Amino acid sequence: MAEYRAKAASRVVWWRDTVCVYCGCPGVGADHIIPKSKGGPDIRENLVWCCQPCNNHKANRLDVEMMRRAFRHIEAQGGCLDWIELGYPKIWKLLGF
Ligand SMILES: [Zn+2]
């Protein structure tokens, strides 16, 4: 688990986050915004810094409010979200951007 976190963290370090994108608490690791279990990819634009309680709460759910918040954060930092619209049209529709 620790090794996984270190690896995932190295992929999100680009966002320069130190606090959980969902609640602002100190984060502990990377979170897949679109969960891996729902086909979410291992790319920088699908990973944000996250705390343990939010990670537990979100789990494998497609929580629209949480996803929207995380993707807005990525967009605000210059990240591109075209991959969602193109590859995950149903989720894109849910997000309502
Ligand atoms: Zn949190």
Short description:
With 97 residues, the chain is mainly α. The protein is built from five helices and two strands; from the N terminus they run H-E-E-H-H-H-H. It has a two-stranded antiparallel sheet with strand order 1-2.
Index terms:
single chain, 97 residues, mainly alpha, two-stranded antiparallel sheet, globular, binds zinc ion
What does this structure look like?
By secondary structure, the protein is mostly helical. The protein has one domain. Helix content is 45%, strand content 8%. The chain has five helices and two strands. It has helices spanning 2-12, 52-58, 64-76, 82-87, 89-95, and strands spanning 29-32, 47-50. It has a two-stranded antiparallel ribbon with strand order 1-2. The longest helix has 13 residues, at 64-76. It is globular and about 30 Å long.
Walk me through the topology.
Elements (H helix, E strand, L loop, with lengths): L1 H11 L16 E4 L14 E4 L1 H7 L5 H13 L5 H6 L1 H7 L2
Antiparallel strand pairs: 1-2
Zinc ion binds next to helix 2.
Strand/helix succession: HEEHHHH
In round numbers, the mean pLDDT is: 87
The amount of beta strand, in percent, is 5-15%
Radius of gyration: 12 Å
Domains, number: 1
Shape: globular
Please count the beta strands (DSSP E, at least 2 residues each).
2
Strand order of the largest sheet: 1-2
Q: What is the structural class?
A: mainly alpha
Count of DSSP-assigned helices: 5
Q: In angstroms, what separates the terminal alpha carbons?
A: 33 Å
